Amino acid sequence: MKYSSIRAVIFHRILLSSLIWVSGLSLGYSTLVSAEPKRLVQQKAQEIFQTHRRAKKALLGVISEPEIRSYFTEQNPEKREALRQEIEKITVKFSGFFNISEMCLIDIHGHEITRVDHGKVSHELSLEEAELPFFAPGFAAEEGVVITSPIYTSPDSHKVVAAYVTPIYINAKPVAILHYEHDLSALQKKLVRGLEPGQVVVAVDSEGRVTVDSRRAELSGRDIKTLRQHGEALFTSQIFDGLDVATVSQMIDNGDPIPGYTGAYKRVGLWTIYSFQATRNL
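and the corresponding structure tokens:
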């Protein structure tokens, strides 16, 4: 059994089609703020939305491969092992399209069936995946749904990551989840790329923690060593000194001036993207 070139072309088309799929983004900026922060936040939010959408659509493409579903219905041990090895090949190929730290097929007991680590098959399979934050929500998700986890420090790659996970259903019951970790530094670099003097971009996760701040090198993908060393401890709820996320959001909604800046924000899935434009030389 081989991963045929025809299926590879189809899979590649899934990736390309998802790149150009853009939907409405939830509105989160005040009509009172200046045009430049709104333009910038629209651009950055759309970039992240496209990344999420592409990853989710491609993940669903992977679980549609017949080998994955056949693995859970095959009774012959030898054929089942052959299917497992084919799944490894499929997931290795998938990992080549994305900045993936790790990708795993995990059963209902939290045991890894397959694992790809930085594009290579790993035979060091964990039996403790049920303890990780994506496990329970992944199995609770409906068929065909991909969820994105809050950021966390991966116990395997020791990087700060966001996880994408989708359940695999057989006979209307979830039997496994397919999960992969996206290195947070790659998303950080995307958000801070191309900024002009006086522009600031900040991203906040679902727990109100600042995960990207273009003014801080260690939160902008340029200091990966620090990010790995300190992990989630680097992330706070402060956007400006003395101003937390909730306060800044309220100020933008009210049209109140932010010291030295005008600002805007948009929500994209579990993240909220903020942009600021300096109103004076800082």
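(Above: one complete record from the training split.) Helices lie at 5-19, 35-63, 66-71, 77-95, 135-140, 184-192, 224-230, 245-254.
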